[in-house]
Amino acid sequence: MGVGEDGSRATWTQDAIASCVGATASITVAAPLDVIKTRIQNRPFDSPESGATIFKRLIETEGVGGLLKGLTPKLLVVGPKLVFSFTIAQHVIGYFEHALK
Q1: pLDDT by 10-residue block (mean), the chain, 101 residues
Q2: Which residues are bridge partners to 3 per DSSP?
Q3: CB of 35 closer than 8 Å to CB of 86
Q4: Would residue 88 count as lying in a domain?
Q5: Please, are residues 100 and 41 in contact by the beta-carbon 8 Å criterion?
Q6: What DSSP character marks residue 85?
Q7: Is 44 contained in some domain?
Q8: Which of 3, 22, 74, 101 has the most CB atoms at less than 10 Å from its CB?
Q9: How many domains does the chain have?
Q10: Phi/psi at 5 (5° precision)
């Protein structure tokens, strides 16, 4: 469990909300790299395009928004897993901290 400014332990709700924000932020930050990685994987084997070339073409043709393609499905699929994992991890850490004292 997280610890508040007054030294009290965070509640399940507080941990879940913090985990939701953390999961959303981490998925959003990684999304542009996922888009470029997917385009690299989908290019023909004989194509000499580098990731930088794919990035440049993506920005020119689709704009900056092209870097966030697929963000919503990823948030809907991966987000709940991260929220669950982060929340449980915080409570397990708190349990072990208490048990080892």
Answers
A1: 63 84 92 94 88 94 94 91 86 81 72
A2: 9
A3: no
A4: yes
A5: no
A6: H
A7: yes
A8: 74
A9: 1
A10: -60, -30
